Amino acid sequence: MDMLRPQSKPPSNDDFTTLPLYRSAPSLEVRLEDFELYAIDRLRVLKAISDGLSRGKKPEEMDKLVFDLWKANMRHPLASEVINKDIISHFVLRLVYCRTEDLRKWFLSMETALFRYRFQRKTAEVQLLREWKFLFRPHFGSVKKSVNKDDLYCDFCKMRRHTGHLPTNYMICKAIVFLFLGMFLHILHILILLSSHLKWTSTIREDEKDRLTPIVEALCTSYLGPDYSQSKEFAEISIKDIDQVAKSSFPLCMRHLFEKLREDHHLKHGGRMQLGLFLKGVGLNLDDALTFWKAEFSHKVGAERFDKEYAYSIRHNYGREGKRTDYTPCSCQKIISSTPGVGDHHGCPYRHFSEENLRAALFRMGVNGSAVEDVMEKVRNRHYQLACTLTFEAIHGSTYDVGVNHPNQYFTDSQKILKAKTAYDKLNQPIDRYLNPVPKFEIWYRIWTGTVRTGRYRPVRNGIQNIANNPLITQETC
Fold it and tell me: What range(s) does the DNA primase large subunit C-terminal domain occupy (predicted)?
């Protein structure tokens, strides 16, 4: 396995500048648990890169983002295993994303972006040029340190392919970056096609159908965040508060289901599952959930029929019936991939609504002007989670760099922002509102009757105008 290690220092447990070339699979024994966990850690990095590029982050922002992501996700307790984790995770994801053309395209794009940001670190650049001897062999000992790194050597195409040398003032430059990116992408594209046709189709899918195949097929659609099976950030919500929080903190998909339930007093199975598990995740306990659903469904099917046909599924969602599984709320990926039928209201509005209906729904949420056009642009490009993120930012008036990946994440972060704003508003209220929260008409009445004390508690029985202008009026002590 070809790899690039900086020679000036040993690898650390978050080594970013050691850059493998991934041209051949390593001969390593990997535990099944590590097989999946390493791939998930790398997938977090690639998906965050995808989100950052889709949001139009600047190059310097992306460079810092990738560096922080790598340190956070690709660490290992043993410094010597960091390189192995990098290599293993790449080849596992190559196997995951080799199966269809769309998966291959996304994987190639994200791996090339990751390679570019890692390549731009100086140590990786120099080591890579030393490693790929089949291109050229420069004299590194004669490179002048005083030369600016951004100096562009435009005549590098005239160098000899096998035995020629670069000029002594050669420095790594943008043109060389693009040269190696093209080479890396070309090689990786060939290797991922070989993985698809020779390894996955002919060998692994059948031979490992009980062990590796389920992991490989699930990884590309897996949700990587918290499961939100229990509300941990805030106290349980009650039925009397549910309308208020639905208006202020529900994402569009859940708000639409909630409004349709209030309007029609009924939801089909997909809608009940999507909304019911979401309400469970935001803190609605089982007793309140049964009361809430029964109050709505009784308008249409009656209380007796509800108890017979619908109450069981609600208790089942809470792990009180059947296998007693603690079901988790649906993630954005699962909601987007759902296929609602006629009469269904579940699914992702950004994907399943028409443009006219989506604009109307955004307007009802308070999204107007250019923010609507920004959301619609993301929808047209099929970036549905980014569209939801822009909706969150427009409603709450703040940036949301982490992006929306789960409806319950939307709710939790919305509540955090609203509670922070409420606390800030309280801190900035005039102090006399806390010292004397008495209605103005009552204050004037007490001034007239002489029951308000001022200054050093001198009783006041006349002089209304003087007292009204006196800044020393204090809390009533009568």
Answer: 243-411
Residues 326, 330, 333, 336: what is their CA dihedral angle, to the nearest 10 degrees? 150
Query: In whole angstroms, what is the distance from residue 61 CA to residue 324 CA?
Result: 46
In the numeric block, the tokens 């290992």 are attached to 76
Q: What amino acid occupies position 248?
A: S
Give CA–CA dist 176/191, Å, rounded: 23
Q: Are 272 and 313 in contact (CB under 8 A)?
A: yes
Q: How far apart are CA 337 and CA 57, in angstroms?
A: 27
Distance CA 25, CA 4 (A): 15
pTM of the model: 0.64
Amino acid symbol at 92 = V
To the nearest 10°, report the CA torsion of 443, 448, 450, 453: 40
Between 370-380 and 384-396, two packed helices, what is the crossing angle to 10 degrees?
170
Coil, strand or helix: which one is 227?
Answer: coil
Structure tokens that stand for 433 in this block: 């509102």
Give pLDDT tens digits for 243-276.
999 999 999 999 999 999 999 999 999 999 999 9
Within its chain, how far is the Cα of 280 from the centroid? Answer: 21
* Secondary structure of residue 431 in the 3-state scheme: coil
Band (161; pLDDT cuts 50, 70, 90): very low
The model's pLDDT over 13-66, given as tens digits with 9 standing for 90+, comes to 555 556 778 888 778 788 888 888 898 899 989 988 888 887 778 888 888 888
Q: How far apart are CA 461 and CA 246, in angstroms?
A: 52
User: What is d(CA 462, CA 333) in angstroms, rounded to the nearest whole number?
Assistant: 72
Please provide residue 454's backbone torsions phi and psi, each rounded to the nearest 5 degrees.
-130, 165
Rounded to whole angstroms, the Cα distance separating 74 from 85 reads 7
Euclidean distance between CA atoms 341 and 125, whole angstroms = 53
Burial 454-463 (b: 16+ CB within 10 A, else e): beeeeebeee
Tokens at 344, concatenated:
């269904």
Burial 86-104 (b: 16+ CB within 10 A, else e): bbbbbbbbbbbbbbeeebb
Q: What is the CA radius of gyration of the chain?
A: 31
Query: 73 with 42: CB under 8 angstroms?
Result: yes
